[in-house]
Amino acid sequence: MTENKNKIIEMVEKMTVLELAELVEALKEKFGVTAAAPVAVAAAPAVAAAEAEKTTSTVVLHSAGQSKLQVIKVVKALLGVELKEAKEIVDAAPKDIKKNVPNEEAEKMKEQLEQAGAVVELK
After folding, report:
1. pLDDT greater than 60 at residue 51
2. Where are the domains of the chain?
3. Is 47 exposed, middle or buried (CB count within 10 Å of its CB: 0-12, 13-18, 19+)?
4. In this structure, which topology does domain 55-122 adopt according to CATH?
5. What is the pLDDT confidence band of residue 23, given thresholds at 50, 70 and 90?
């Protein structure tokens, strides 16, 4: 570290908590800095990266709506299960129908289920 940095550190070590708080406020005013700005800037790339990486979704059936029989038929066709198992899945709503589905396929599943009257969400 440079000599100036060492001097500043020594001065800060000798300050009281009240003096440190006043120093922080003075620095904020002098340089126009707020504590929220660095946090927001740091969080934005992390959120963008998480959204960019998400290539799969989970299809969640919240309810069968008014046309339970139609929703059961669609679940049966989408999952390739027997009628009894499809009914059990629909009766257990809210329930994950299928996990880690490519986004495009998940959108198609959601559309088909909604056309049958179901309430569906992609996570």
Report:
1. no
2. 3-51, 55-122
3. exposed
4. Ribosomal Protein L30; Chain: A, (3.30.1390)
5. confident
Distances (CA, A) of 98 to 47, 56, 63, 87, 105: 25, 11, 15, 15, 11
Element (H, E) at 100: strand 95-102
Res. 68: pLDDT tops 70: yes
Q: Which strands, in side-by-side order, build the sheet including 56-63? A: 95-102, 56-63, 119-122
Q: What is the pLDDT of residue 73?
A: 92
Is residue 59 predicted with pLDDT exceeding 70? yes
- DSSP secondary structure letter of residue 26: H
Q: What is the pTM of this model?
A: 0.56
How many angstroms separate the CA atoms of 102 and 108, rounded? 10
- What is the signed CA dihedral for 44, 47, 49, 51, rounded to 10 degrees? -140
Specify the length of the chain in residues: 123
